[in-house]
Design a protein that fits this description.
CATH class of the largest domain: Alpha Beta
Order of helices and strands: HHHHEHEHEHEEHEHEHEHEHEHHHEEEE
Radius of gyration: 31 Å
Helix content: 40-55%
Number of domains: 3
Mean pLDDT: 87
Number of strands: 14
Low-confidence stretches: 1-34
CATH superfamily of the largest domain: Response regulator
Distance between the termini: 46 Å
């Protein structure tokens, strides 16, 4: 038996894991460097630290599960070994009984007795052999589980990324490499330019072609140029399906779709689940469907609203009220907040309906709230920035000036950082844009190349470019141009490092596991409070 060797292996793995935590912090950047380089280095270090923390947490969870499986397998091996020893003992007993009977008979042996004893001995020996085989198999399983635990602790091999993001950001569009001449990678964008979500899809549809130009400026992807075509779905379900079909007829290898299910579901009908669709700015769980090649790029609504409720509870807030409107975004987010807040011991003291995107007069709701509020509550909804500040002004006019206002990613999308009367408002954006960091360089680079134009909804923009990069990654990983095969390759992506953080699809339903930033307006600045 090799139980001692298995135990020793587990012990060594434990020592290795303990040693991994003793790495020293990296040296501080050279303070003599130029101010811009220092800012970029600091931001890169912050991004690396956040990515490392997220990866370390994921690796720890995987390692813990693998170690538990290894322990179970070892216990099973020990049990099988004990059974084998017991069976061997029974076989020895049977053999001793046979010999004793023979000795006692002294030549007058009853053939029937001898035959019975020999049969018992044969059965006992067979049982012992089977038990020994089972013990050997269990030991092999335990060793395999120990090796799996070791692999889990080591973590996955870093992904070789199809596009060097930093090299692309450094590209000089006025002095490009030779133009790539291979077969083009075609990217279709079915975007919604209507008032409802145009504030994210319009700038996103500008930034993706810009980044494709940067990729092409550095020689393309393995010699292939990246082409981007944009179609406006116009806030109409029928138009969305038509736009998707036009992009497919053009030869798009994958699509980037609009945020809401109303217009993305017709696109998925057009693709028949055979073409990868990245729903760049969406958080709707209904659009996370890996079996039909529909992928979120961000955290989902359950993630952001749970994080908001947990944060409120951690601040000692025990009372809250919500505004809701039936729907997969405007209704689902408040529902999740209520569920998590109440499960944590909080009380929902009021729930009111409103019209998302439209209402700014909340006098009727304020009149009713005046009967129940104690001026120590949290407010939560998926409302837009100007709606939240309008409600705040009206509640303050009624004497409620100590309410904590919490919202979703919609606040970031609609510029809560630039709204009047925004001090203290909390929200859950997708990306924390740090000066000098990758996202800042992406956005300022676009501005420099486009006559100083500043894109709106900046915390969303990295999601659109990540959608582009993830589709390209699938093409390179599978070495194919068939859309269904590209989708299969995307579903196996693990540890992709993009503008919006680390993205993994393997083992998910199509939503990458991501931490949720909690940001708050403090002294007029949009400050990252924590990651959840």
């Amino acid at each position: 038996m090799k139980f001692k060797s298995v135990i020793a292996l587990v012990a060594v793995l434990g020592l290795i894991a303990a040693g991994c935590g003793d790495d020293e912090e990296p040296a501080a950047p050279d303070t003599s460097a130029a101010e811009a380089a220092a800012a970029e280095a600091a931001a890169a270090a912050a991004e690396a630290e956040a990515a490392a923390a997220e990866a370390e947490a994921a690796a720890a969870a995987i390692a813990a599960a693998a170690e538990a499986e290894a322990a179970e397998a070892e216990a099973a091996a020990q049990e099988a070994a004990a059974e084998a020893e017991a069976a061997a003992a029974r076989a020895a007993e049977a053999e001793a009984a046979l010999e004793a009977a023979k000795a006692e008979a002294e030549g007058a042996i009853d053939p029937d007795v001898v035959a019975e004893l020999e049969a018992q001995l044969e059965a006992a020996e067979a049982e012992a052999a089977a038990a020994a085989a089972a013990a050997e198999a269990a030991e092999a399983e335990a060793e395999a589980q120990a090796e799996a635990a070791a692999a889990a602790m080591a973590g996955p091999e870093p992904m070789v990324q199809a596009v060097d993001i930093r090299a692309a950001l450094n590209a000089d569009l006025g002095n490009c490499a030779a133009a790539p001449s291979g077969e083009p990678i075609r990217v279709g964008m079915a975007m919604d330019f209507s008032d409802v979500v145009g504030f994210v899809d319009i700038p996103g549809s500008k930034l993706v072609p810009h980044f494709a130009n940067l990729i092409n400026c550095t020689g393309g992807v393995n010699g292939s140029p990246v082409e981007v075509r944009v179609e406006d779905v116009g806030g109409d379900a029928t138009t969305a399906g038509v736009a998707a079909q036009q992009l497919l007829d053009w030869g798009a290898h994958f699509l980037i779709g609009p945020p809401f299910a109303d217009f993305t579901l017709p696109i998925l009908q057009a693709t028949g689940g055979q073409v990868p669709v990245f729903v760049a700015a969406s958080t709707e769980p209904t659009l996370s469907d890996i079996e039909n090649n529909s992928f979120l790029v961000s955290f989902d609504d359950r993630g952001q609203s749970s994080a908001a409720a947990e944060w409120a509870l951690d601040q000692g807030i025990t009372r809250a009220f919500v505004f809701t409107q039936p729907g997969p975004y405007t209704g689902y987010n408040p529902d999740v907040f209520k569920e998590v807040f109440e499960a944590g011991g909080g009380e929902i003291v009021a729930e009111h309906t409103y019209e998302w995107f439209v209402d700014t007069d909340f006098s009727a709701q304020v009149a009713e709230l005046s009967e129940v509020l104690q001026n120590n509550e949290a407010f939560f909804s998926a409302a837009l920035g100007y709606q939240v500040t309008a409600l705040r002004g009206q509640l303050e006019g009624a004497g409620f000036d100590n309410i904590t206002y919490i919202g979703t990613d919609a606040l970031d999308a609609t510029g809560i950082a630039f709204e009047a009367n925004n001090e203290g408002i909390v929200h859950t954006p997708h990306i924390n844009v740090e000066p000098g960091g990758l996202n800042d360089r992406l956005l300022t680079g676009y501005s420099a190349a486009n006559d100083g134009e500043v894109l709106e909804s900046q915390g969303f923009m990295g999601l659109y470019v990540d959608s582009l990069l993830l589709g390209i990654q699938g093409i390179v990983n599978c070495g194919c141009t068939d859309s269904a095969q590209i989708g299969d390759a995307v579903a196996q992506i693990e540890g992709f490092e993009g503008f919006s953080g680390t993205i993994t699809y393997v083992g998910t339903t199509g939503t990458p596991p991501k931490s949720v930033p909690i940001k708050r307006i403090v002294n007029g600045q949009d400050v990252l409070v924590e990651m959840r």
